[in-house]
UniProtKB/TrEMBL annotation:
Annotated organism of origin: Roseibium salinum
The entry's keywords: Membrane, Transmembrane, Transmembrane helix
TM regions (residue ranges): 30-52, 72-93, 114-138, 144-164, 185-207, 213-239
Protein name: Glycerophosphoryl diester phosphodiesterase membrane domain-containing protein
Length: 258
């Protein structure tokens, strides 16, 4: 954590502006954000439901680790969800830049870059999740700091096509800005927590009235809002870091998809 004792960066990250712009993009492109992330999320929940049970997948029931097989199924379910989330993030990163530039959202155009980055992005997401999870298990603050270190790994892989060098690229870009990034991410996480709490409160009623499958669809749709917001925040953090450190504008970043 070498940057903890360093002075404040000369150019501010602008956490308030990043969060404000992220909300603006989310609300102005709400239907598109949900549409982009819903199908991958639903597929992820369906696969998880097949592995560990649909009630467990949507949080209605607690997982039961009664055997080695159930533990393996739960771990495999977690991996599936990470890979699916990575793919949705790869799509939403591109949407965020089009929205930021006032360009029309072209969902079909996002799939080829996302698919080409899926293997390194999925594997690195699993590695980062384990590292950050260990940090949170020890103490919350180290976990949040590590989350900030590797926060822009996904945009780096999708946009710069750095492949398995995404973690190193993220560490380089976030250096000297990790605590401001941690603050922005914490605000984003709190928003997601609120959204998921509301979804959780509604889930029992929906399952009781419409059944587990309907509850699964609604849960997938609601969860995409929170996940979409965090992905937008990360995309804008990456763009801001490129602007500060390398003089690269958002339109130059987005031009790689043209």
């Amino acid at each position: 954590m070498s940057d903890i004792t360093m002075g404040q960066p000369k150019v501010a990250l602008g956490v308030g502006s990043l969060i404000g712009d992220s909300f603006s993009i989310l609300f102005s492109k709400f239907i598109q954000v949900v549409a982009v992330a819903f199908v991958p999320s639903l597929i992820g929940y369906l696969l998880s439901g097949a592995l560990i049970g649909f009630d467990v997948a949507i949080g209605v029931e607690e997982p039961q680790f009664t055997s080695a097989g159930s533990g393996f199924a739960f771990a495999l379910s977690a991996i599936v969800n990470m890979v699916v989330y990575s793919f949705a993030t790869a799509l939403l990163v591109q949407l965020a830049y089009d929205a930021k530039l006032g360009r029309p959202v072209q969902i079909g155009r996002y799939f080829a870059p996302a698919l080409s980055a899926l293997v390194p992005l999925g594997i690195l997401s699993i590695v980062v999740s384990i590292i950050v999870g260990l940090g949170f298990a020890l103490f919350i603050v180290p976990g949040l700091w590590l989350y900030a270190v590797f926060s822009v790994m996904a945009p780096a892989v999708v946009i710069e096509r750095v492949g398995f060098g995404g973690m190193g690229r993220s560490a380089t870009l976030t250096k000297e800005y990790r605590w401001p990034i941690a603050g922005a991410l914490l605000l984003g996480i709190l928003c997601v927590v609120v959204i998921n709490l509301v979804a959780g409160l509604l889930m029992g009623v929906i399952v009781a009235v419409g059944g587990t499958f309907l509850g699964l669809i609604i849960f997938a749709a609601v969860s995409t809002v929170g996940a979409g917001f965090v992905s937008i925040v990360i995309a804008l953090i990456y763009a801001r870091l490129r602007e500060i450190k390398e003089g690269v504008s958002v339109d130059q970043i987005a031009s790689v998809f043209d």
